[in-house]
Design a protein that fits this description.
The protein is an alpha/beta fold and about 450 residues long. Helix content is about 35%, strand content about 25%. The chain has three domains: about 100 residues, Immunoglobulin-like (Sandwich), CATH 2.60.40.3500; about 240 residues, Aminopeptidase, CATH 3.40.630; about 45 residues, LysM domain (Membrane-bound Lytic Murein Transglycosylase D, Chain A), CATH 3.10.350.10. It has eleven helices and 18 strands. The protein has a six-stranded mixed beta sheet with strand order 12-11-13-16-14-15, sandwiched between helices. It has a five-stranded mixed beta sheet with strand order 5-1-2-10-9, with no helix packed on it. The protein has a five-stranded antiparallel beta sheet with strand order 3-4-8-7-6, with no helix packed on it.
Length: about 450
């Protein structure tokens, strides 16, 4: 009899402990947030809980089942922004779960993760979809910002750590630290203003970063990265622009995408009538001119950055490099990727973790971009208005010819000769030339 009582007592204790362990979680709050990097929904829980999810079409929905959860019954609320339209409850598979349905305008990539914060546990549903940019075509003259706007893109972030150094340094942390220092330098200079594509540790797909820069009306996009190799020997910085093959491919895609054409041409203050017979050739001409001007600006700005970077660090590549990278594909924004060093090299990893060294890198990029925009200020900007003479001083380097200089500044040899009263085509090193603007 005593043994039977002991057995029942153990069963009761076990049942109580199992009930305590499997106690349900309460869904305390549902919060919707939208930003340039995407939209997200935060489900605040009383304790961490398992979940499952799936998608449905017609209409587009993301369905989230939170295991063993109660609370927010009959929940129904409007979404925020253009992507998330509505959130509501639905009938779950089992009575012990809670089901939430996120009605969305379109099905895009998303990720679901647990977040632990001081105020509780969360399930985060984060959509990889920046708020869409209006494709409306405007007529007339749109006033630009007085400031020259530089978009600074800190490479990687969130679930994408980038390269990892021998001592465990994440590339995503180094790039963000340099980006913030660079932003501070730009924002302290009258007439310049920097915006970040990401200001914290979250993921943005490479293809979305140029869209964010365009939405911010950037005049230049600089993407910060740290290189890596499978051996520790390589070191040094390098500067990259898009290669011609990728540029041509993106250009072709742009011509096929009517909404992207409208978006770009609206930025150029151009009016397109869809009914015009010669619309296709007109679009091609305008976009082709934009693409060529953008690539030339990218090349010029990259040369300035290389010139300043080599004063601070060893250059892995002394000349600008070309690559097929999604972050560089904006057809209307000069775009440059800067590899500040090899995080896989122990010495450079140590340097990149040093705040003063990161500041030196940021200072060199700031100096280069400032010099570039003093020569090529965007029309309508404060710096363009301050540049009253419109003339540029160019110091001739050894081996430079009039042809090369004229090509760089996109003017004729005759214009240079006339402005400098030159009788011959020969030049001397360190000779100063006056370059007429336009």
């Amino acid at each position: 009899m005593l043994n039977r009582l002991n057995l029942w007592f153990c069963v009761i204790l076990l049942s109580i402990s199992l009930f305590s362990f499997s106690a349900v979680a309460d869904v305390k709050d549902v919060k919707v947030e939208s930003s340039a990097s995407g939209s997200q929904v935060l489900f605040k829980l009383s304790k961490k809980s398992k979940y499952s999810h799936f998608t449905l079409k017609n209409p587009n929905r993301v369905v989230l089942d939170i295991k063993g959860a109660t609370g927010t019954l009959n929940y129904r609320a409007k979404g925020s922004g253009e992507l998330i339209k509505r959130i509501r409850n639905s009938t779950p598979k089992t009575k012990q779960d809670s089901r939430f349905v996120l009605e969305v305008a379109k099905l895009v990539d998303y990720e679901i993760t647990h977040l632990s914060r001081p105020d509780g546990s969360y399930i985060q549903v984060k959509f990889d979809d920046p708020q869409p940019i209006s494709a409306m075509i405007t007529s007339g003259q749109t006033e630009r910002d007085d400031d020259i706007i530089i978009a600074i893109d800190a490479g990687h972030g969130g679930r994408d750590p980038g390269s990892i150094g021998p001592q465990g340094t994440y590339e995503k942390n180094i790039t963000l630290a340099i980006a913030k220092k660079l932003q501070k330098r730009f924002n302290a200079e009258p007439g310049l203003r920097a915006v970040l594509t990401r200001d914290a540790d979250y993921y943005i797909s490479p293809s979305k970063r140029p869209l964010i820069a365009r939405k911010k009306k950037a005049d230049l996009l600089i993407s910060i990265h740290a290189d890596a190799f499978h051996t520790p020997q390589p070191r040094g910085a390098s500067v990259w622009t898009i290669n011609n093959g990728r540029a041509q491919t993106e250009f072709a895609r742009l011509l096929e995408n009517k909404s992207r054409q409208s978006e770009l041409l609206a930025g150029a203050n151009t009016v397109i009538a869809e009914s015009e017979d010669d619309n296709a050739s007109f679009v091609r001409t305008i976009l082709d001119m934009t693409k060529d001007a953008t690539r030339k600006s990218s090349y010029d700005a990259s040369d300035y950055i290389i010139s300043e970077l080599k004063k601070v660090t060893k250059m892995h590549k002394k000349e600008r490099q070309y690559a097929s990278l999604a972050v560089l594909t904006a057809q209307d924004i000069p775009s440059i990727l800067v590899e500040v060093g090899f995080i896989s090299n122990p010495t450079e990893e140590k340097n990149l973790n040093w705040s003063k060294y990161r500041q030196r890198l940021a200072d060199s990029i700031f100096t280069a971009v400032s010099k570039y925009f003093k020569v090529y200020p965007p029309d309508g900007s404060l710096w363009a208005r301050l540049n009253k003479t419109g003339d540029i001083k160019h110091v001739v380097k050894a081996g430079e010819s009039l042809y090369k200089i004229a090509k760089r500044y996109d003017i004729s040899i005759a214009q240079i000769k006339q402005a400098n009263n030159l009788k011959r085509d020969s030049l001397k090193p360190n000779q100063t030339l006056l370059i007429p603007k336009g």
